[in-house]
User: What shape does this take?
Amino acid sequence: QQQVKQSPQSLIVQKGGISIINCAYENTAFDYFPWYQQFPGKGPALLIAIRPDVSEKKEGRFTISFNKSAKQFSLHIMDSQPGDSATYFCAATGTASKLTFGTGTRLQVTL
Amino acid sequence: NAGVMQNPRHLVRRRGQEARLRCSPVKGHSHVYWYRQLPEEGLKFMVYLQKENIIDESGMPKERFSAEFPKEGPSILRIQQVVRGDSAAYFCASSLTGPGTYNEQFFGPGTRLTVL
Assistant: This one.
């Protein structure tokens, strides 16, 4: 049973545009929601994370928006750059520590 | 200042052989996680270990797969009698502490297993 649903599967954005990736979860025990960035042939790297006691977290060009009542959260990449082209995974975890990942979004930023 | 190290990076096995994947966590980290990534899919949790203990193996297939994290040395993920469906990227992650408070999991570069 997939507990974290992620969309879209792929995304093409022009340089300077906004990239938006959405995730929804089912398990109300989740209390930590990280986003990971993965380049081809590499392991995932933590990009930004949020806890459900805040509705938004911003770090540079990356923002997480969180809607606890809807059990949804999203990643916004402002001023998208070609170097942002990668696969992005949302994830969720609770006190058990193991991460439950979404299926990933392949982002391509074009010139 | 080494991160998580995994070896080998690429492993080719024929059906029926054994695969041994090794993971050395970040220095000072005593919590290790293994995840499997099938082509075009997200990562799936397999097992969580602390030194000499398996804490959560709820994601491990019931047969042929085993994991250990000995007192000394790297964590090992062992797959016996591999089948083509085992072909995937296997990622190891480590964290400083475990359940109760969330600590960032640092991922290694992965081992890409191909079963012929």
